[in-house]
Specification:
2% strand, 294 residues, 11 helices
């Protein structure tokens, strides 16, 4: 039972980070109808900036994180302005192909600037494990979970009550109607990419503190894709719930099934689960059902 609870807690923490990163996918999809397949690279660039600020310039973690988030927001704005905006009226497949090219460009830049080896963050969180009735929890997991939950709540309130959040929802629901109401769609698109980049950077910093930082961490972009599909491509709630489901199932598969078959199932399990669920709910758990009249 202790092992089960350990796997469950770890899965919940990792799943919460998956949900946060998946939120960036959902925001871009709701704004443009296309998937940002460079999201994995957005996840790793922020942590590298934060790590360099902490190690090379001896800047405290909180200040380094703030600078990282500002840099990530600017990166999102630059990508939207130079890469996405010129083709925003092109077919969706063109936008997707542009993000694939962007993924290769950013991934190559990361390898060129910071190399291939795994790097570790300086100790930010306490190292003494917390014992809850025999259940051992590392402080970095606990704090990561708290940070993610707080951010998800703040984003939920932002989308529901703020003017920008309402404008983003309006553009996602009906772009032409939003234009007729005086909403600047270009500004909303730019803000969406900036927020998605910031969200990815936060998730990357948390994962970097947990597992270390290397260019291979960009693979989280592929790992989070089942989360987005499972929850529903256009659902913020689906991204959160899907993150928890995939995180728990992935961790359980790694803890219980990988030792039996020699490993590898942990990486494949999310895709198997998504295929099975999509047979029953093609639009995901919370996705909007598309109806087209002909």
């Amino acid at each position: 039972m202790t092992f089960f609870l350990q796997m469950l807690v770890t899965g919940i923490v990792v799943g919460s980070i998956y949900g946060l990163v998946a939120l960036g996918f959902v925001l871009i999809y709701r704004a443009s109808g296309a998937l940002n397949l460079a999201n994995g690279e957005f996840v790793i660039i922020g942590p590298y900036i934060c790590l360099v600020l902490m190690t090379a310039y001896k800047i405290p973690f909180i200040l380094s994180l703030v600078i990282t988030l500002i840099f990530s927001a600017i990166l999102g704005l630059v990508v939207e302005r130079l890469v996405i905006r010129p083709i925003q009226n092109a077919p969706v497949v063109s936008v997707i192909m542009a993000t694939i090219g962007l993924s290769s460009l950013l991934g190559g830049a990361v390898h060129m600037l910071w190399g291939h080896q795994t790097r570790t963050f300086p100790q930010v969180f306490p190292s003494t494990p917390i014992n809850f009735s025999g259940l051992i929890i590392t402080p970095v997991y606990l704090w990561s979970f708290i940070v993610v939950i707080v951010l998800l709540l703040l984003f939920s309130l932002f989308f529901k009550f703020s003017k920008m959040g309402i404008a983003m929802r309006a553009v996602a629901d009906d772009r032409q109607a939003a234009l007729s109401m005086g909403i600047s769609v270009k500004f909303v698109y730019a803000a969406t990419w900036a927020i998605a980049s910031v969200v990815a950077a936060v998730g990357g910093v948390l994962l970097g503190n947990i597992n270390g930082l290397s260019p291979t961490m960009a693979a989280i972009g592929l790992t989070v894709l089942p989360v987005v599909i499972l929850g529903g491509l256009d659902s913020v709630l689906g991204a959160i719930v899907g993150g928890f489901i995939i995180g728990i199932l992935q961790n359980m598969a790694g803890g219980y099934l990988d030792p039996l078959i020699g490993g590898g199932l942990k990486e494949v399990a999310p895709f198997i689960v998504v295929l099975l669920i999509l047979m029953l709910k093609p639009y995901g758990l919370f996705g909007s059902r598309g109806i087209e009249r002909v």
